[in-house]
Predict the structure.
Amino acid sequence: MQTQAEFLSLRKHLQQAIVGQTRLMDRLMLGLLTGGHVLLEGAPGLAKTTAVKALAAGVAAGFQRVQFTPDLMPSDITGSDVFDPKSTHFRFDPGPLFHEIILADEINRAPPKVQAALLEAMEERQVTVGGKTHVLPELFMVLATQNPLEQAGTYPLPEAQLDRFLFHVCIDYPSYDEELLILQRDRNTHFGTDQKQEETPLSPALVLQARREAAETHAEPDVERYVVSLVSATRNIGSLIPKWDGYIQTGASPRASIALLRSACALAYINGRDFVTPDDVMEVAVDVLRHRVIPGFKAQADNIDREALLQGILAEVPVP
């Protein structure tokens, strides 16, 4: 399909801007394709912000970066009512959230009241100011970053807000060869010898059309049952792995099942298929479930983290 081919040109654009980080690029594309929000976590200097900017540059849509700080106010992101002396009436002055792609940089540094304002935007795709509701753009998506190293002066994201993210992607350091290529590219850019990035033809209308096509990707009942089995296992892991009974304090909700199937459908779409396989589900499962599972005290005492719990579930749930 022509729409599919044009949407996939975004991958080439991202590869021109980012070295390695294939999984990160795929997750950003899947987030754009499903309309889901993405939380990126990694140490400074791992191209989190660069990746988001590259995605925004590949789409002819409004982009706004918001640096989250402890003194940020809800009106700083939602907008506010401003008195107009000419008309003697209040008019609404839109904030940064009224762009299609939002980069919420270091989201965990904002106080709870700001995160609460962002929660309505992420879930309802609207903001309420002065008792009036204002609808956000149809393409609206939040790409948030957080640094796992510095916790002083941060506010942990509430579980309700974490659940609104489609993916929680943990970014690792590049390989030796990738870091060498990063160094070479930086020198080429410094000396002006780096090639100019090619423009991509993506428009908001094309992205929305691709979303509709990806949502129509066929999923067999066996695949749907597999998705539900994986998610329900997080709520009763003891029945699946008896020695891990009590290892998960809180499991994933049905929203996770919806997110998992949507992500698998989108992955099949960007891989050129019109049907979902169990492998698609397994590929995205950890990033979909990572932030929706809370380990219990038993797991912490035995040094079993979320990654190990989810990998254990994937290994034990029968694959259709």
